[in-house]
Amino acid sequence: MAGECILCGKCLEVCPLLAATGREELGPRAKADLCALLAGDESLLASADVARLAGLCLGCGRCATVCSQGVDVPGLVAGLRAAHPDFKGWLWKTWLTHAKTLWPAGSAAARLVPESLRPDRFGPLLKMLAGLGAGPGLTPTLAPFLTPTSFPGTHRGERMLLFAGCTATLVRQQWLAAARSLLDGLGVDIQSGDFRCCGGGLKTAGFVDEARAMALHNIAVWRGAGRPKVVTFCVSCLSGLRGYDALFGDPAEAEVWRNSMTTLSILAKDTDFVISGAVPAQIAYHRPCHAHGADSDFLLLKAALGDRLVASTDRQCCGFGGVMSLGAPELADRVNARCWDQLAGAELVLTGCSACVARLAATAPQGVAVGHWLETVEIT
């Protein structure tokens, strides 16, 4: 894929890392050129140098979206990471593959460690853990203020699987409760499904085998349920699920899989909400990097909140960066700072991505609340 790059520079216009640093050598075009060079002679760079360069990618996928030649730079970088693993990658893999054990306990423990005592190597991970937490999210500081009053009958009686994702399942159960409440109101027949992680974070970090195992398990759950629609409420999970195409031997079934993916905000787009209780006057929305095209989460919130939604990001990445947040936290912080510049003045920031919630909650200015949009929905 690197050889198909024509160096047109379209990717440079959308790369958050380049925008934050002004260093073109960190941009997608340079990485594609590097991969092409290494494909010709891997001995040109030492393994440690390749691992370091491979770590300097947020994995946001914006470059792949705009590339006219179909070059997937994050995919190329993932290949480098797979070929040149390091400690940071091992730590990231452990964090994702043992989420059920590590996340609930880790988030609680991280909040007990003063920031001044967090070691440099683990500091970024601990900060995000502490920001995510295992508590009630926005509540009780800010109670849900969007109450659904009427639902469309478009999907009433339709069978669907709910893909909740790791965060909602393990440390943010109120997201799952609110999602189920909305689906109940919509009349959707929610089927049980023992899904695992989407595998997107592992795939981007270069752990292809582990990501593949999770993906094949999820596909088997879908097949076993009769190939129904799959509802998600995390944009990053949706992106990970949509990346399963190569795992299907039958192109027709792969297309059925792609078409089965939908978001909760699309299903609920014609739901009527009333605003009640104490509502912040300045609410902002963060558009996740993986929200390609029309962002259904933003459209749902805009319809419900109207003029209260005063700001939103567009090309600004939160700086989560996956494994990069461990390898180059100072660069991730610069990306994150640009995001907060765009959100300045907001009292509450909402988004539809679990990774963005973790990152923004860990870096929010004093007095600013951060949460998933589902946390604003009253459970009925």
From TrEMBL:
<dbReference type="Pfam" id="PF13183">
    <property type="entry name" value="Fer4_8"/>
</dbReference>
<dbReference type="GO" id="GO:0046872">
    <property type="term" value="F:metal ion binding"/>
</dbReference>
<protein>
    <recommendedName>
        <fullName>4Fe-4S ferredoxin-type domain-containing protein</fullName>
    </recommendedName>
</protein>
<dbReference type="InterPro" id="IPR009051">
    <property type="entry name" value="Helical_ferredxn"/>
</dbReference>
<dbReference type="InterPro" id="IPR017896">
    <property type="entry name" value="4Fe4S_Fe-S-bd"/>
</dbReference>
<keyword id="KW-0408">Iron</keyword>
<keyword id="KW-0677">Repeat</keyword>
<dbReference type="Pfam" id="PF02754">
    <property type="entry name" value="CCG"/>
</dbReference>
<keyword id="KW-0479">Metal-binding</keyword>
<feature type="domain" description="4Fe-4S ferredoxin-type">
    <location>
        <begin position="1"/>
        <end position="25"/>
    </location>
</feature>
<keyword id="KW-0004">4Fe-4S</keyword>
<dbReference type="InterPro" id="IPR017900">
    <property type="entry name" value="4Fe4S_Fe_S_CS"/>
</dbReference>
<dbReference type="InterPro" id="IPR018136">
    <property type="entry name" value="Aconitase_4Fe-4S_BS"/>
</dbReference>
<dbReference type="GO" id="GO:0051539">
    <property type="term" value="F:4 iron, 4 sulfur cluster binding"/>
</dbReference>
<dbReference type="InterPro" id="IPR004017">
    <property type="entry name" value="Cys_rich_dom"/>
</dbReference>
<dbReference type="GO" id="GO:0016491">
    <property type="term" value="F:oxidoreductase activity"/>
</dbReference>
<keyword id="KW-0411">Iron-sulfur</keyword>
